Amino acid sequence: MKIKPLCKAIVSIVFIYFMVATNVLARSADTYEFQDAVTEKRFNELNKELRCPKCLNQNLADSNSPIAQDLRREVYDLLHQGKADIEIMNYMVARYGEFVLYRPRVSSLTYILWFGPAILILLGVLVVVFIIRRKPIERKEVELSADQQDKLKALLKDKEL
Amino acid sequence: MNKLIRFLPLILVLALGLVLYRGLSLNPKDIPSALVGKPMPEFSLTKLTDESQIITKDDLKGKIVLLNVWGTWCVYCKYEHPYLVDIAKGGRVALYGLNYKDERIAANQWLKDYEDPYVFSIFDESGRLGVDLGVTAAPETFVIDANAMIRMKHVGPIDARVWQDKFLPVIKMIESEQAGQSLNELSNSEGVNSED
């Protein structure tokens, strides 16, 4: 009966091994040598900023699709040609459009993205201020006329009976 | 005024629902191409059938050029293949192939096994021209006019419906432009003649 926990342990060790192993495999799909640490850092940063055009919601660093591999190679080559980050971004935008930028540029097309949330918050604040500052409905003291006074008394008398 | 404010949340929710409902029927993979309206990029690659023959942009001749990105690894390329054969036989456009990230021997065998609809195919093993064209996968098809301008890009396979709805309008537009141009040239030259 002591075999069961042993089995469980083996299974989980194998499972963990495969998780770690596939993770390592995915990371080493392409290996690049860098002339210095700064270039390597820029390479990694650019791959995080650039979106894989085929995979919708992955950056170049995350994706192992063929197109992401190609674009990583392009980024690497451009870096070694001495191109600035902004030039590499422009290069990608010229080919794949604004879509490849995870942080879209401010243009007439993206105004709503950049300023929409701020405008909505402002609108919300305005609504709250409007509601708070609205004057409460005034309640005037109402004087009863002599006639009404008599009616009231009559009603109250009925109640007492 | 007060009544209107009472209905405002309902109106807002309905508007939001409309926007989200529209989102359901949009294809998020339909990315507008950055290259439409721009000239065809320069390249220098070999012909698929002949390693020693260099192909450049100037070799894509025709009044209207269709450049079809394909590969033997691409399933939908097989699906659209019969339509491409028909289009090539129609003679209205000049159909060229861009063999994308493929192996030369396998690609040539593929064309032998089925049928080669292309005037010729460009061999882009590394996908460099693909990157310059903003290609993300195969099949993709570019419509290029006589001035080497990219007029349209279609992502995905071509079939009868796509051809009818998406390609023919653009082709008709280019044709009418070209007819207009040649008419202009004709009348210009006649004008010059009469002055003489």
Outline the structure in words.
With 161 residues, chain A is mainly α. Chain A has three domains: 1-30; 32-101, Orthogonal Bundle (Helicase, Ruva Protein, domain 3); 107-132. Chain A has six helices and no strands. The longest helix of chain A has 25 residues, at 3-27. The radius of gyration of chain A is 35 Å and the shape is elongated. The model of chain A is unreliable at 23-28 (pLDDT under 50). Chain B has a single domain, classed as Glutaredoxin (3-Layer(aba) Sandwich). The model of chain B has no long low-confidence stretch (mean pLDDT 89). Chain B is built from five helices and seven strands; from the N terminus they run H-E-E-E-H-E-H-E-H-E-E-H. Helix content of chain B is 46%, strand content 19%. The A-B interface holds A 53-54, 56, 66-67, 70-71, 74, 93-99 and B 28-29, 31-35, 101, 126-127, 130-137.
Biggest β-sheet: strands ordered side by side in the sheet of chain B = 2-1-5-4-3-6-7
Shape of chain B: globular
Oligomer: heterodimer
User: How many beta-strand runs of chain B?
Assistant: 7
> What's the overall geometry of chain A?
elongated
> Largest sheet of chain B, described in full?
7 strands, mixed
CATH superfamily caption of chain B: Glutaredoxin
CATH class category name of chain B = Alpha Beta
* CATH-defined architecture of chain B: 3-Layer(aba) Sandwich
Distance between the termini of chain A: 89 Å
Count of discrete alpha- or pi-helical segments spanning 4 or more residues of chain B: 5
CATH superfamily of the largest domain in chain A: Cytochrome C biogenesis protein
CATH class of the largest domain in chain A: Mainly Alpha
**Roughly how much helix do the residues of chain A carry, as a percent range?**
55-70%
What is the overall pLDDT average of chain A?
83
